[in-house]
Amino acid sequence: MTTAWEDARRPRIVAIDGDFPGARLQRMWETAPGLKGWISSVDHKEIGKRYIVTAFVFLILGGIEAMVMRWQLAAPNQTLLTPEQYDQLFTIHGVTMIFLYSSPILTGFSNFLWPLLLGSRDMAFPRLNALSYWIYLAAGVFIYAGFVTGNGPNDGWFNYVPYAAKTYNPGINIDVYALGLILLGISTTVGSANFVVTFLRTRAPGMSINRVPILTWGTLTASVANLLAVPSVSLAFFLLWMDRQFGTQFFTADKGQPLIWQHLFWMFGHPWVYAIVLPAMGMVSDALPTFCRRPLVGYTPVALATVATMALGFGVWVHHMFATGLPSLALSFFSGASLIITLPSAVAVFAWTATIWTGRPVIRTAFLFFASMIVLFVIGGVSGVMTGSTPVDWQLTQTYFIVAHIHYVLIGINVFPVAGAIYYWFPKMTGRLLDERLGQWNFWTMFVGFNLGFFPMHIVGLMGMPRRIYSYAPEMGWGPMNLVISLGALLFAIGVLLLVVNVAVSLKRGCLAGPNPWGAPTLEWSIPSPPPPYNFAVIPTIESRHPLWEHWLNESPAPSRLTEGLLLDRGRETIATTPFDAEPNLILEMPADSFAPFILSCGLSLGFAATLFHLWWVAALGGLIVIGALVDWFWPRRVHADMEAANG
Amino acid sequence: MADAVYLAQELPVASLKHNSVGWWGMLCLIATESSLFVYLLFSYAFFAVRFGPGWLPVAHPSLKLALPDTIILLSSSAVIWWAEKGAKTGRRRQHLIGVAATMAMGLVFLIVQALEWKSKTYSITSSSYGSLYFTITGLHMAHVIVGMVILGVVFAWSAAGKFTPRRHTPVLISSTYWHFVDAVWVVVFTTLYLTPYLVNP
User: What is the ipTM score, two decimals?
Assistant: First the structure.
């Protein structure tokens, strides 16, 4: 009989003393070397870094696609691309940036950071975390396999019917997109469930919900929204795929309702817009104060505004459909709801501004990215208010003004904070600082290039240039402005390239960072850079929002205890706490590294690829692999003392 | 070395009943799956409103098979509750019988659903109503099948003595999922079978 695991215990409290208890934990938590360890690792830090690198590769691919399009549009009547190629390019550019870059990059940061911010040794479901990454990778490869063989999505990222219907789009392009996005939806969903449960159950003792970093509020809000919104788009794509493959009548013009595609898409799409900015805003809320040498102004309003933005975000989807002929009562309602979102957004903007205003700013590259994000957010917000107003939207919809708006919002509130976050957390991930001088060049190139490239899009939009045209005649007079746009975009791309260069150079040659190079207040900076596989040698006990600034903030009656705490060392263990007050209530047994997530994603990908080509028996085989991996996953392996007693 | 210090409170080790993170994970799954059915029924309502009462192929859908089938599926919730009670009190036989009975009731539900499908005069391609009807009920049946697979695995683990009155989180999680599958059917049944009687009295 195997040795039984104990049923309950009072965990020991110890102080960290040299290698104790780190050396022992290291053996329990470290991933095996080589390919075996790479495929089976469930370490959130490894998975987080993979997410970030993969998403960044997609950012670069999407950027190259954009540059090809900007070459085509730099002057009138260019013939670099055929209309069909242009269709696939602008579609794959949107799909890449919106689905394969902007959400996964934030998931990567949250994966890496959450357990470190929350004082835990891993996420609540480490294997689910690995699964979420593998499926994301599979979905990206799936969609790109379509694109490189000329079968990529070609109807814009929101894929309107009837152009997406079989009659008008007979290839497998749309089917690749439909199945690829359903696959990606599974990844997003399991990842979101993981964040929700991690937030509720694995915070360090004492870290009540009014003491968590704002990033966790952002990602939690996004995750809850994903759980509720992703089924809408997965369903829409499933129904479309049925229409195309089996002749159902959901979106057909004669017997179906084409308009419901837009409802289902945007009921998902608008919450998704907030899901890909709120965690980034959270990163700014947490990191900007470090450079201002003071706590964030208005923690509680900012946390509440985060949740409020998303709650309102579920009631505004029709503002994407103002031009579809809906009744004016509906238009007024959704227009009003959209304008109200200004309020929670303004809370964040004023909180950041006040933090800079009343702080003592230290101008480093990360600060520049975070501070400039406020400016870009305001510009993107104002153009959002304009398009949120029905009569204005009727003038602007389908023009380049919308392209300007979406890029100010997504690059402004996602890419700029992400670049700042790379400068801020790179030392934690690698132990080395990025080069500051190259960083300044990097920032100014991106900032000037971005505004030079994207601000004139507002103007050509107002001049009437439609979006998604593959060329235009010289008489339209859009040529000079488009040349400026293309040059600005090129400068912006060079800026992104400088970031890549900085990372490549600093990985080997950057200055050593030490645990807390910025003098930052939150928990991740209390442990070595890079963190050991077990994160925290002892589980810390938290008494305030800024555990590392307590010595001068005097926020809390008692100091947080970071070097003395629960010693959980009988196998991979961490503490589970109550959802609100974070009182310990369970010792969690964490899973070992496992092949199940990888095998499951292989089975799932096989199933989806086979479904694309109607190879039903192969798809069934994929399904069996999935079931097998799940059974192995959930197999109750450990025998506890009370079970031994019960079974003799 | 000084005397060892311990936390004042004794903590259970590993997943335990409602404290287990797996149970919370199941609640997340149920939240997202519920949303899926909300969007399906939203679509149904959207079509119904846009096309008006004439959209229904039959003014009053027959309850001859659907109502008894609903009663079977609903009663299976009571049976799985009884089975779970067996696991909680250490009566393994009760748990095994209850789970087997639940799976059998699930199977009967699926067979009657297949008969119900055969009795329809419309098909999945003939009208948008047919497309929605077969998609909604089909997706629900897929959930019943998944529930039965989960119960089958839990049955095997229970037979192998993997559970005790104190430790049986998979039992709890699987029966919660089954209750969810039943609850969804109540809403689907009400929408597809009962609301037409309100619209066309």
Answer: 0.96
